[in-house]
Design a protein that fits this description.
Two copies of one chain form a homodimer.
Chain A: H1 2-12, H2 23-36, H3 49-56, H4 60-73, E1 76-79, E2 83-86, H5 116-123, H6 148-162, H7 176-189, E3 199-202, H8 205-216, E4 222-227, H9 231-239, E5 243-250, E6 253-254, H10 257-261, E7 268-271, H11 285-297, E8 301-305, E9 330-335, E10 347-350, H12 353-366, H13 372-383, H14 386-412, E11 418-420, E12 427-431, H15 438-447, E13 453-454, E14 467-471, H16 477-493
Parallel strand pairs in A: 4-5, 4-7, 7-8, 8-9
Antiparallel strand pairs in A: 1-2, 3-10, 5-6, 9-10, 11-12, 12-14, 13-14
Chain lengths: 495, 495
């Protein structure tokens, strides 16, 4: 009986002599697999090593190595004088079919039992298509103008000087010189004085939203959210089970008076006062102060995404809500994704002193720390003034590209779209005629090699008009005319 | 009345001519601050620009610049023919005292209202002391033997080749060549064949624990946890509100039969089967299979931290639980913190196919993506065989250091501690005589320049004996003897 079974086993072991895996490993894996699958059950006697060696066409030494290894692992038992047996201590396994394809993790009858968060994240619609090199991609820096050689010098310099002393986990709050450099930058360029100890470095701005939502709101808590608003942040907060309270946008930014007057007990407001995404509005000073009053009166928090504050083409930026906060209700988020590049994955929080310990602990326990090499390089890059001068250079470049976009769009887009160009930022809205389907047009634009986000996707409430969001900062001069012409053709030729 | 107020204002504006901040910025910030603080109320008329210029000792142009800027921000109103006034649209602010020091965020009467998670994370005890260069620090690679120049070559090569096409957010699941390199490595060195699509790159192994806990368990769900077990993971899970069910360890690893027989409905088991931290036990094959049966029967999950599987000095490692899982219940976590260095912050998950979509979405929405530069460098480093050869070199080096430690400890520690040296890993336990206070001794050891973790800190239940956890892999030969002598002196001289 045992002979028959092991005979069956031998014919099933297939040796691939072209494989990188050593022979003994191949045999061992298949033998172990057969035991786990139940096709070799506990107590079965294996053929003698000499017989196995002949059948498999490998040296006896290889067979012995396999048997000893599986015995050491507990799969086999070698009984002196009577041979080698499949271990009887192995529980009887009913072979289970392992799903063979990578499923999207949608909830449903066949889905595995996971947490409430897990089922929400599993069901979230996340688009994984890479768009990095698409023309008119919103929020896209001018990668072609990035000072690679200079940046690399800082990466190398920091590496040489610092590897030996900085290979461990590092400070969960972030590399101290980087926090100092950011505090200096904020004081000089945003007129916002903060203590470097109020700063916590995060792996990108988005991670800061995640930590803030978890620390400041409970599942089911209301969260004021600008409508239309940023898609990925909305997706994150909804997946975390926070109740989004969509607030309309007007020329002064988030128009929250009517919403908060209802007294829904919202605990957090997520706002982009410098330049609201995607509409490009700036929140007025009066609104900023009113929002602070609301937060203060309701023990609520303001999560301020100081998005795009770096690139303003006319006038000076308004002070951040954080810098005029007298009562410690603002969690300020900055990122280097727009000013440098997203793959750097560095952002930061500026926190009210009472929240610093909590957020440091959250980073320390959730992530241990943020990668150090990039933090060290960036600290040097800022401290030596290169960040400020890169921003200045980009502001000038983007001002030129903005102007060129306006001129070219007036020519190509006449009668097809109206350009809504904000005073700051990296994107423009091309408003379409009423009744046009911006999602459909955006899809056709992509097919024509031009990227456009349909504005309709950003809103919980329908927008008054359809429109397309286009980025102008990453578009080199020679690409601009042909790109806008291609877009115009799509708009002209699609029903 | 207005004159008086503005007079008061003027004496309060202090100009620091040694500051890097421009004059107009200094004046503007103080003026804005006075308005926000309520010391200049809405409707107050400011002195004429000429008068202000004389009083402050700055040019009239500077004063005009300040007034125009604050008017643009909405703080002032310039009424043609009648002068400049503090805007009446500014809500009346009751000045609030901003907390002036960075508080640890402890909950209590004076603490701000945050979420349940926030209060737990705020109250967590997290130790931020950097220990990187302490002697005998557990889990510390031999940084002095790290191939810096070779690693830097990969960092540079990838940077040169790849910056331009890889500056955006990148694939949230991780850089595809790195996932392929990890899959190849696991197949060859862990006998674990997986599809690269089952792999999700994380910013370190710990982030993988965080995501897995959130996706697979709800707050209040039971989580089987080895006792004693890793401190930071315990702190994380407890802060996330998961109910830790502490399971004792014996020579076969986590001894969970009695616990699961109680039918507590636990949803997840966090295990370190290769080498349990801190006791250094390896989970037996029979236990691994039983744990799989439990997970399968209870629709529960196994979070397998394949900690320290790389460094085994005698015999071959047991197959990972994941590699013998026939029913897709194992979430496998690997990290490069031990094999390379922690500051790299790269780890990975190998997921059952049904969970891949959910975990990808979680990384995409919580973090957007993981920094690309380090992923690209590591992918090349692995693909070119340097990772495998570095591990081989370190395994040989650590075997030597392990042997040297045993010899030196036998000499220095006789009568003071007994060494419990596992077959694998980077740490050793020095068991102390009963009745000794390991926390107190560890504290004194640190004062003597030697790092030791008291074993008592790792357990929810008291351990049978006190002990100290010491790392031997990061200790260079010339440090070993003096270090153990220093430890012995502490043990001999402390009550």
């Amino acid at each position: 009986m045992a002979k028959r079974k092991s005979g069956a086993l031998l014919t099933r072991i297939v040796i691939d002599r072209s494989s990188r895996a050593p022979l003994f490993r191949q045999i061992e894996d298949q033998l172990r697999g057969a035991i786990l699958a139940g096709s070799l059950s506990g107590g079965t006697r294996l053929p003698a090593s000499r017989a196995l060696s002949v059948e498999l066409g490998v040296s006896r030494q290889t067979v012995v190595q396999v048997l000893e290894s599986l015995a050491a692992e507990g799969f086999l038992e070698m009984r002196r004088g009577s041979g080698t047996f499949v271990a009887t201590t192995i529980p009887q396994h009913v072979p289970q079919r392992v799903p063979s394809t990578v499923a999207p993790g949608m909830p449903g009858n066949a889905a595995p039992r996971v947490s409430l968060l897990g089922s929400r994240f599993g069901a979230a619609e996340v688009d994984f298509v890479s768009r990095e090199n698409r023309l008119f991609l919103p929020n896209s820096p001018a990668y072609d103008q990035f000072p690679f050689a200079l940046w690399q010098k800082y990466v190398n310099r920091q590496a040489r000087q610092a590897y030996r002393g900085n290979m461990g986990y590092g400070d969960p709050a972030g590399h101290a010189p980087l926090r100092q450099a950011i505090a200096d930058y904020l004081a000089l360029h945003r007129s916002d004085a903060c203590d470097p100890d109020q700063i916590v470095i995060t792996p990108g701005g988005h991670a800061a939203f995640m930590v803030a939502a978890l620390m400041l709101t409970d599942p089911g808590d209301g969260l004021l959210f600008e409508d239309p608003g940023p898609l990925i942040a909305r997706n994150l907060f909804e997946s975390l089970g926070r109740k989004l309270v969509h607030v309309p946008i007007d020329d002064e930014g988030m128009d929250f008076e009517a919403t908060v007057a209802r007294g829904g007990g919202e605990r957090l407001a997520f706002v982009m006062p410098s330049r609201q995404h995607p509409l490009g509005r700036t929140m007025s000073l009066a609104r900023r102060l009113r929002l602070l009053d609301w937060a203060n009166a309701n023990e609520a928090w303001i999560l301020e995404d100081d998005y795009d504050s770096e690139f303003r083409y006319t006038g000076r930026p308004l002070p951040s809500i954080r810098s005029i906060d007298r009562s410690g209700r603002v969690i300020y988020v900055g990122t280097f994704s727009k000013a440098l590049f997203p793959a750097l994955r560095l952002g930061y929080l500026v926190l009210p002193p009472a929240l610093v310990g909590m957020f440091r602990n959250a980073i320390a326990l959730m992530l241990r720390s943020v990668p150090l090499a990039a933090q060290m390089a960036l600290a040097g890059f800022i401290a030596d003034g290169h960040f400020a001068s890169h921003l200045r250079r980009m502001r000038e470049l983007y001002a030129e590209r903005r102007q060129a976009f306006l001129v070219a769009a007036a020519r190509s887009g006449a009668g097809l779209f109206e350009v809504d160009m904000p005073d700051s930022g990296m994107n423009v809205i091309a408003w379409l005629q009423e009744g046009r389907n911006d999602r459909d047009l955006a899809q056709r634009a992509v097919e024509a090699g031009v990227h456009a986000y349909p504005l309709g996707e950003y809103g919980a409430q329908p927008l008054p008009r359809p429109g397309l969001l286009l980025g102008f900062t990453g578009v080199a001069p020679h690409q601009l005319g042909p790109g806008l012409e291609a877009l115009a053709r799509v708009l002209a030729c699609t029903g």
